[in-house]
Design goal:
The protein is 50% helix and 9% strand. It is an alpha/beta fold. The two termini are 49 Å apart.
């Protein structure tokens, strides 16, 4: 695990130096053998190890300064100089031109730690590399565009330049286009429409001989096709990636095979087939449906809830953002009558329960124990809504869930109305609920909406 960026460490160290003690020179720690070794052709792992070494040395500096009797007025500047010296020892011998795309991208953090001059060195190397008509050049161009997009949404022109890069085809197959697809996926539909023909042209690149990590990006590409292409074209794109994944499973190692199996399940799921929203909710194979106190909820299938709006909140005990959104879900429960709205926290057996206070409790191959621990968890977490165990993974392929919490909303007929909302997005969730309730109430606002207006 790599530590947070140096600035956070710098702040914590600088607070030690506030009382005005006379300045003393802080010797920069000596580099370890790893940082002193010849450095051509370093791997991404070796670069990240160097970054870890820098932070380890900064922690030692922190301990040393904390033991000082006082601090100096120029302590922050002294610390910055010493920290940059530590980073420079790690940079020593690194030949940016010799690094592959992954190692080169990892090196950005190392050069950031080295100070403004080293940042400029890295930026120049990145710009020079991006001009190369090769896969490495394309990877650098993608990295540069990703860096620029962090200061705002990627532009249509910037993406067009990536498509036109002479190393695009070679770079795409090498796996360098993952960042490009992620940027496209984050753009507004209107901004990617001019790129429709280029996006559709990616079809010829998706084949069974692609690297597994790049084949995994096929999910993003299929979603993009659903935005910019016709329904038939989007379906053809889905089948292309599906068939490539199925072919890739033959002879694959266990890890790759499992990844491909998950890809196939997602691509064959209702969401990716375009038959989720507006259709009856897929069966969740619910095996255990309880109120927060562990007592039976009184229903076992989603079809039993027809007549109510249903909020499905997919979550797990180990998911921090899921737990952080519980207050919003609890507020939702108190805002609407149980006769109008059902909230169901959907999870699946994980083999353990991660209690906030007691820590992780192993329940592997013991569903009864896991259910008991879940009830205890629900009590401690202040859950006030129904919870259900699904026989399908919490990353449900029919809903194309790739991250949790994930909220889907069903209308009173049991059809999927909205998907992909975050459990903490109270505004959008309430808006969808109120829209559905207003339809069933003859256009009247729900009591919760009326209270909000007042």
């Amino acid at each position: 695990m790599h530590r947070p960026f140096f600035a956070a460490t710098f702040v914590s160290l600088a607070t030690v130096l506030v009382s005005g003690h006379p300045a003393q020179a802080i010797p920069a720690p000596q580099g370890t053998p790893a940082t002193q070794a010849a450095a051509t052709g370093l791997t991404a792992e070796q670069i990240n190890n160097r970054i870890d070494e820098v932070f380890n040395e900064l922690e030692k500096l922190n301990e040393r300064m904390a033991k000082e009797a006082g601090a100096s007025a120029d302590g922050a500047a002294r610390l910055e100089r010493a920290s940059q010296e530590v980073a420079m020892k790690a940079i020593k011998g690194v030949n940016l031109a010799s690094l592959d795309a992954t190692a080169f991208a990892a090196a950005a953090r190392l050069y950031d730690l080295g100070g403004p001059e080293q940042k400029r060195v890295y930026a120049t190397a990145l710009a020079d590399r991006a001009k190369q008509p090769t896969a490495l050049g394309f990877a650098a161009a993608v990295q540069s565009t990703v860096d620029a997009s962090r200061r705002g949404t990627a532009t249509t022109d910037a993406m067009m330049k990536l498509f036109d890069h002479p190393g695009f085809r070679e770079g795409f197959k090498s796996g360098a286009a993952r960042g490009m697809l992620a940027m496209l996926n984050g753009m507004d539909a209107a901004d990617i429409k001019p790129l429709a023909s280029r996006i559709a042209g990616m079809k010829v690149l998706y084949s069974a001989d692609m690297p597994p990590e790049m084949l995994g990006s096929g999910l993003t590409w299929v979603k993009l096709m659903g935005t910019v292409a016709t329904k038939d074209q989007a379906e053809a794109a889905r089948r292309t990636v599906l068939e490539a994944c199925q072919a890739r499973m033959n002879g694959a190692d266990e890890k790759s095979r499992k990844n491909m199996e998950r890809m196939v399940a997602l691509l064959d799921g209702a969401a990716m087939r375009g038959s989720l929203v507006g259709s009856p909710a897929p069966d969740l194979d619910l095996s255990w449906v309880v109120r927060a106190d562990g007592s039976p909820a009184g229903w076992t299938k989603l079809s039993d809830l027809k007549g109510k709006v249903v909020v499905l909140d997919f979550w797990a005990t180990w998911c921090g953002p899921c737990i952080a959104s519980f207050p919003e879900v609890a507020s939702l429960r108190t805002s609407y009558g149980a006769d109008k709205l059902e909230i169901v926290g959907v999870t699946s057996l994980q083999g353990y329960v991660a209690h906030p206070k007691r820590g992780r409790v192993d329940c592997k191959n013991d569903p009864a124990k896991e259910k008991k621990e879940l009830v205890s968890f629900l009590k401690d977490a202040g859950v006030t809504w129904t919870v259900a165990l699904s026989g399908k993974d919490v990353f449900n392929p029919d809903f194309a869930i790739s991250g949790i919490p994930f909220v889907a909303i069903l209308d009173q007929e049991g059809k999927v109305f909205k998907t992909g909302l975050h459990a903490s997005n109270a505004t959008e969730i309430r808006k969808a609920i109120d829209e559905l309730l207003a339809k069933s109430d003859g256009g009247k606002k729900s009591s919760a909406a009326v209270r909000a207006d007042e």
